[in-house]
Amino acid sequence: MTLYLPRTTTAQIVEELAAERRSVGGGAMNLVLTLVIVTDEADHYDAVQAATEAGREHPSRVIALILRDPDTEPAIDAEIRRPGTSGPGETLLLRLYGPLAEHADSVVTPLLVPDSPVVAWWPGVGPANPVADPVGRLANRRITDSHRAADPVADLVERVRHYHPGDTDLSWTRTTPWRSLLASTMDQPCSWITGVEVAAEAHLPSADLLAAWLARQLEVPARRRVSTGPGITEAVLYTEDGPITISRKDGRVATLHRPGRPAQTVALSRRRTAEYLAEELRRLDSDEMYEAAAKAMVERLSEAEVPS
């Protein structure tokens, strides 16, 4: 069931949520976090759908702040979807008009699940400094997606320069299957690794992050090569016995080549946004590995820009 509250107030929304909790016997106590989505009209459907799927693993109250015309009179149009309608928790769609978009924290605060973590997610172009954003200040974790920016690499670099514990970006989450496969590959005996190379389509920050992670973990030089995609297409570990290559041309299946051994086929599918989001919601503390890799990426790119 969905309840529509046009031109409403936060007090009225809180009252309706309390009435709903009483009718189901305090359902909000089963929620583990509040997920706040900051989006626009064009992106909100896909974002809420992804949050709904992730909510099956992480029961949460989803609050989608849909920012509308900033030049109109301040107003809130609310849509409340009861638990079970689109997920295990309530889903609130709040359309904010006028200057309310700049004070979204005052709208969100009364609606947070008490005594539980808050996660903020910008599925579109996010702020350069998420912790300075009104909604970001409320959150334990702040998830952005530089992939949506006009210049994804520059967008992530600028955000990393403002890094604060709790920040993360889905460009890092996209590297998880590659990192897992590379780590398991390096668990097997091999000769000394002398360098690494990552190939991917142009302007893909995930590839730069993966290259920086490999260079930092292995303490070897890393090179980034442009391919036709989709996404990351190849990772190469150069060893004294020859290259170890993981190649994925179709975005679904990878082939692992090791010196002196037959090729192996490995599942390495590109995932959906809901899966990236669910992965990030599994941890609500700071991601130190992301911080280290992101800062190493910025350092590598800065060095590459310095003329010789």
From TrEMBL:
Signal sequence, renumbered to the chain: none
Stored InterPro entries: G6PDH_assembly_OpcA, OpcA_G6PD_C, OpcA_G6PD_N
Protein name: Oxidoreductase
Organism of origin: Thermobifida cellulosilytica TB100
Domain Glucose-6-phosphate dehydrogenase assembly protein OpcA C-terminal: residue ranges: 165-293
Domain Glucose-6-phosphate dehydrogenase assembly protein OpcA N-terminal: 51-159
